[in-house]
Each structure stands twice: as C-alpha cells, then as structure tokens.
Design goal:
The chain is an alpha/beta fold and about 230 residues long. The chain is built from eight helices and eight strands, in the order βααβααββββααββαα. α4 (about 55-65) runs antiparallel to α5. The protein is globular, with a radius of gyration of 17 Å.
Length: about 230
Amino acid sequence: MEVLMFSIATNNYDRIYKDNILSHRKYADKYGYRYILFDHPKKRISASDSAWMKIPLILHGLQRGYNWLFFVDADCRISLGAPGILTLERPGKYIYMTLGRSNRINSGMFIIKNCNQAKEAFKTIMDHVDEDAIPKQDVALYENGHVIHYLKENKYLEVLDRKWNDNTGNCSNIYILHQRKKEAFFFTLVKKFYSRVFSRILYIAPKEKRSIRLSRFLEHYKRLYF
C-alpha cells in the first residue's frame, strides 16, 4: 500500500510550525509513508490560495495512483502514539474527516482511499472553485465552506472521533492536536491589512480566477516535488 502524506506550509509557516512538521515526518517514517511538505513559493501566495491548494493536490495524488492520501495542516501536531491510517478503513467509506469546533466537517485533516468515488467528490469541489456563493449555513474560512457544502452529505464520508483532528482542546488521548499559533494569526492579519491598503492606493488589475492561480501553482509543485 503506497501512502502519500502531505502538508502545505507557505508564507513562513514552515518556520512557525517546524515542530509540528517534524512530528509529521516522524509519523510518516514510523509507518513508511511518503511525506511531502509543500513549502514553495515562500511568498507571493495568499493565505486563501495556500489553503485551497490541498484540493488540487489531493486530486493529483489520486490521479498519480497513490493507494491512500493523508493530508494534515501545518498547524497540526501528530502524536507518535497515533495508529496508522489504514486501521481506520471501513467498508464503503473512502473519505475520512472529523468535526471541528462548529460541529461541521473540518478540512484540516483528510484521509482518503483512492477510488473513483473519492476522485469524483474532490473533482466536484474543484468544479466550483471559482464560485464564492454557497449556502449561509456552510460558509467557513477559505476552502472549508466548499468542503462542508459538497462533502457533508457524501455517503462515502466517515466522520472520525475528534481525537484525529482536535481543535477544541477538550479531547483526551489526542492523536492530532490542531491549534493555530498567535504568531501565524498575527502574520495573516498583517498581510491582509497591507494587501487591502495597497490595493486602494495602487491600480490593481482584475484578479485571475482562482482556478487559474491554483492550476499554475499545481504545475509549479509538479515540477518541484513529484
């Protein structure tokens, strides 16, 4: 079974979350998974695009034929006592996630078995990547709203115990602790502020569609990492 485990850490997140990333590498080494940290470009990628990149990367990993994919956010720390992901397999279930603080599925962690049903699910999300309008009850930061909207009713989704992606701090025997550092939060706020200020001072050409930007970043990642 070939497993690809990966995380995305652009915009200094590789430095801010270096201890978490080390825990990813140790976990991958323990179970013999291939681990890739997508940490380029170091700059010139928005927080939104960086978060969205997990979706085309998941699709690419499935298309390349990995049997399983395991995505974790850079701000997730994995316990070395966490079981291997193959222990989670359930009949007829191909996408494994947990609920977040809002009691909706959280895109900070995906475990995916390669099959046509999984490919179709993530292709559906990508087909709507340029659409910002989703129902109010599904709205969430960056790509998570689309993930909630297009996966919450998917019959191939298995919702795992929160200890596989705990961002509440209320779980015991946590396998994956998902907590954002204040440094990263401050960095994102400052970047958004300067982006808005300069966009008003300077003439900014109309933005490209998100799908075009993500496609360009994906080609960059293919050359660099695959």
